[in-house]
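ok trying again, last paste got cut off:
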Amino acid sequence: MRLLVGVLCGFLGGTFGGLLGVGGGVIMIPLMTGLGKLTQHQAHGTSLVAIAFTASVGAVTYLAHGNADWKVSLVLAASAIFTARLGAHFAHSLSEKKLKKAFGIFLLFAAMMLPAKDYLPSFAGGIPFWPGIAIYLFIGAATGFLSGMMGVGGGVVMVPPMVIIAGMGQHLAQGTSLLAMIPVAMAGAITHYRLGNVRTDMAWGLAAGALAGGYLGATAATALPELLLRVVFAAVGLWMALRYLRAG
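nice, full thing came through this time. structure:
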C-alpha cells in the first residue's frame, strides 16, 4: 500500500514538476504528509530520493540540447554537496512544528518566484567561468543547504541568481542547475537516510512515479501556456504555504 501511495505522490509531483520546470519536491512533500501520513521530516528525506532520479532525467535532456554547462555544474555541486548534509542535519534538529513553518515560508518564496523566473533581468553575455567561480560556489552552498533542509531540488533557489548575477540564459541555467543537483540530492538523501528520515517502503514508488509523471508533464507543457501554469502553481503554492504557516 505504501508503495502505491508513493507512486501516486511521485506521479503527481513529477507531472507538475515537468509542467513547471521544477523538481517537484514542493508538490510531493505536501502529498506525502497528507496522503502518505509521513512526518514532515520523513517527507523531506524521502522526497530527495525521487529528486535524484528526476534531476538525472531532466539533466540528460538539457545536455542533449546543449543547455547545460558541466564545468559550472561541478563547481556548484562542489560546495552544495557539503552544505546539503548540513541542511539535512539542521532539518533533523527542528521540531515538527518548526519544520512545517520553515517549509511554509519556502513555499511562499517559490510561489512568488516561479511565475516570474523567465522574465528575470540578466547581464548580457554573462561572466567568464574563472572570475565567476566564487559566485557559483556561493550559489551552490546556499542552494545545497536549502535542498538538504527542505527536501527539494533547489532549482527555484539556484536558477534566479544564476540568471541575474552570473548572467546565464534561462534554459542554460535550468539545465546546469539540474545537472548540479544530481549529486546534491543524493548527498541529502543519504544523510536523511542515516538520520532515519527516508521511508524506503515509499521511496522507490515515489521515484518511479516521479519519472513517469515528469515525462508526461514535460510533454504536456509544450501544448499549454506556461505562464498560465505558473500562475496556477503560484495560487496553489500560496494556499499551501498559508496552511503550513498556520499549522506552524
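cool. The chain has a mean pLDDT of 83. The two ends are 29 Å apart (CA to CA).
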